[in-house]
């Protein structure tokens, strides 16, 4: 182990007396691990850390988190892009419905998961999108059932300067926000003037301006809050919110550097044993296992453990424990295209100005006052136009989709299983209904300060797959090399058509009076989206979409919460069908992707799951019924829990640029 890794471990454990939470690194895990645990959580990302935190509130139970990544001290440059040290470095299959090229598919490989790398955006989506989850056979998972858990997870602070709040239409509805949850959510202290121009521009096109991005209506334009501390404007994530605050709990153990290779399934449908790799930790026993490895890795883990489509398990030479055709099917994501319009107004201040002395001044202002451009995330301003607002062709698009065969656009193999087909047919009905409404966003447009208008289709009909390539997750040297990930972007052709409509809408935004003041000068091919003397070449735009399309990093649906006869993998209690003590708690259980960045939904899912697990074991749910969740409080044994990561200074230097 190199010295830097050793220092990181010392930093993480700096606050810990020997009687408190055990951090089990590879060198000490065999000596310190308990013979058995009440709960084993596989994955230390958003969902895993939330569940582990809440379950370990009961001092009479023991909880072990197994995480493949390490509790890194992540540098300020993390926001500039994906560091291989914190990433699983996965590549997709060639995208046959685009340009036959592969895409990088970044996933967090670090304690805290994607929450330490994401773009900070907090959006929930529309009420009716969660009601669609309930309509797909999941009682209690509609908006009313989830809103208490959105609130329970957050401490939402509205302290925007009154002048900024008035100009940017920031008037949050505090009745839908939490004020004492673990995760800090706030607005930045600095807004570029371009945000105002964008909001005025889309308003000229009839897009409503929303005072609150998270009050249950998604169609509109708004300033989005971020997972940042209102006090010091630094990133908050699942580690700082749900782990570092409870390091005093002796019943909570975290073993990092442990890639779980399979779950041993008992003959009675139990999953009491987890098997990680290498020679340090051979087996860990748990009364209940929670798979929280994310929408890409959890289904792979299930498959190599004998839970999944029988044909795939047979190919892997894995004994079929539970034949579940939906495991690894129904992969949904937001396909994204970055379009560049390059603001050239000479007096404009943007992130391009943050160089040399200006950068030093911004950095000094941040560390002195926690204000200024250093506090601005890459994206603060977004629009979610409904399909009706996006294009006059909306009814034709929906009619073309509804008239096509559901089976025609799904993958072969398990994707054609009757249960999977039935489930997709019902999803499609819900999507068609949602996209015909005025209050549901169809497309996201993210506006930065330099002239990038990134678009993403937020209600795609295409479905992808993920599967293991070997029964041994590490047989090819890494997890990334032992899985096949195929998002199948635009396998439903209308998904790409919606993105073309988004580019045309971008052109109309750029042509508004408010945006023309920024002097946009789009290069090819994006100049073709702006109205001119020649008709727009939509065929050329479609080719641009196919060449530029990539992921918005929002995979979900691969272990869907739906009835088993609809290809579901988990029931409404998130228990895997055919199992007695194995649940999945991560974005994979989402049956239908909402028009939102997914982190807020995953926090809420995990909060709700933790209460369900407690209820099923006869434990207290923090004294709070589902409609009135209790506030997070420091552990009574240590009221002065450290408010920030022991490994990350609270004012840690971080770039104003964040990864999407």
UniProtKB/TrEMBL annotation:
State the residue spans of region: Disordered: 615-660
What cofactor does this chain's UniProt record say it requires? FAD
Binding sites annotated in the UniProt record for FAD: 110, 118-121, 260
Q: Which UniProt keywords apply?
A: FAD, Flavoprotein, Signal
- Glucose-methanol-choline oxidoreductase N-terminal domain location: 294-308
So what family is this one in? Answer: Belongs to the GMC oxidoreductase family.
Its name, as the record gives it, is Glucose-methanol-choline oxidoreductase N-terminal domain-containing protein
Organism the protein comes from: Cercophora scortea
Q: Where is the organism placed in the taxonomic lineage, from the top?
A: Eukaryota, Fungi, Dikarya, Ascomycota, Pezizomycotina
């Amino acid at each position: 182990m190199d010295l830097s890794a050793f220092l990181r471990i010392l930093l993480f454990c700096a606050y810990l007396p020997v009687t408190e939470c055990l951090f089990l690194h590879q060198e000490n895990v065999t000596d310190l691990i308990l013979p058995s645990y009440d709960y084993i959580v596989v994955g230390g990302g958003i969902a895993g850390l939330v569940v582990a935190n809440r379950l370990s509130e009961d001092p009479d139970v023991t909880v072990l988190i197994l995480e493949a990544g390490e509790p890194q001290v992540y540098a300020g440059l993390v926001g500039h892009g994906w560091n291989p040290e914190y990433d699983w470095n996965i590549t997709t299959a060639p995208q046959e419905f685009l340009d036959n090229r592969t895409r990088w598919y970044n996933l967090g490989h670090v304690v805290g998961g994607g929450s330490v790398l994401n773009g900070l955006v907090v959006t929930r989506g529309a009420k009716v999108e969660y009601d669609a989850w309930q309509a797909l056979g999941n009682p209690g998972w509609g908006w009313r059932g989830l809103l208490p858990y959105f609130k329970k997870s957050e401490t939402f602070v509205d302290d925007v300067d009154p002048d900024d709040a008035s100009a940017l239409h920031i008037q949050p509805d505090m009745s839908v926000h939490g004020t004492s949850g673990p995760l800090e959510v706030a607005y930045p202290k600095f807004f570029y003037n371009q945000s105002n121009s964008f909001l005025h521009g889309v308003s000229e096109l009839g897009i409503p301006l929303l005072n609150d991005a998270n009050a249950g209506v998604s169609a509109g334009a708004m300033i989005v809050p971020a997972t940042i501390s209102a006090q010091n404007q630094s990133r908050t994530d699942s580690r700082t919110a749900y782990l570092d605050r409870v390091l005093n709990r002796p019943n909570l153990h975290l073993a990092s550097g442990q890639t779980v290779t399979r779950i041993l399934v008992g003959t009675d449908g139990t999953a009491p044993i987890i098997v990680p790799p290498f020679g340090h930790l051979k087996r860990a026993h748990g009364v209940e296992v929670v798979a929280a490895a994310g929408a890409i890795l959890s289904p792979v883990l299930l498959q190599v453990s004998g839970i999944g489509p029988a044909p795939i398990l047979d190919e892997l030479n894995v004994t079929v424990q539970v034949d579940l055709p939906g495991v690894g099917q129904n992969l949904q994501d937001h396909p994204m295209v970055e379009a560049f319009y390059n603001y050239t107004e000479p007096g404009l201040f943007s992130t391009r100005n943050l160089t040399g002395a200006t950068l030093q001044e911004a950095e000094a202002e941040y560390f002195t006052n926690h204000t200024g451009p250093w506090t601005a995330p890459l994206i603060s301003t977004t629009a979610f136009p409904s399909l009706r607002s996006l294009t006059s062709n909306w009814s034709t698009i929906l009619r073309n989709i509804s008239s096509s065969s559901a089976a025609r656009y799904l993958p072969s193999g398990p994707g054609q299983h009757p249960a999977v087909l039935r489930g997709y047919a019902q999803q499609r009905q819900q999507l068609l209904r949602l996209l015909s409404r005025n209050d549901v966003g169809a497309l996201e447009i993210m506006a930065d300060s330099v002239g990038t208008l990134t678009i993403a289709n937020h209600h795609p009909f295409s479905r992808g797959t993920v599967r293991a390539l070997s029964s041994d997750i590490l047989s090819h040297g890494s997890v990334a090399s032992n899985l096949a990930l195929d998002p199948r972007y635009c396998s439903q052709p209308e998904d790409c058509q919606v993105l073309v409509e988004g580019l045309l809408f971008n052109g109309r935004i750029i042509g508004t009076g408010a945006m023309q003041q920024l002097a946009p000068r789009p290069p090819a091919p994006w100049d073709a989206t702006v109205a001119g003397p020649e008709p727009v070449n939509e065929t050329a735009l479609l080719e641009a979409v196919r060449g530029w399309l990539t992921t918005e990093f929002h995979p979900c649906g691969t272990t869907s919460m739906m009835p088993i006869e609809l290809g579901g993998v988990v029931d409404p209690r998130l228990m895997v069908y055919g199992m007695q003590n194995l649940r999945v708690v991560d974005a994979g259980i989402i049956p239908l992707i909402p028009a939102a960045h997914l982190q807020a939904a995953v926090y809420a899912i995990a909060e709700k799951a933790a209460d369900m697990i407690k209820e099923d074991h006869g434990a207290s749910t923090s004294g709070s019924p589902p409609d009135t969740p209790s506030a997070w409080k420091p552990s009574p044994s240590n009221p002065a829990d450290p408010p920030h990561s022991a490994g990350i200074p609270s004012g840690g230097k971080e770039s104003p640029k964040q990864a999407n």
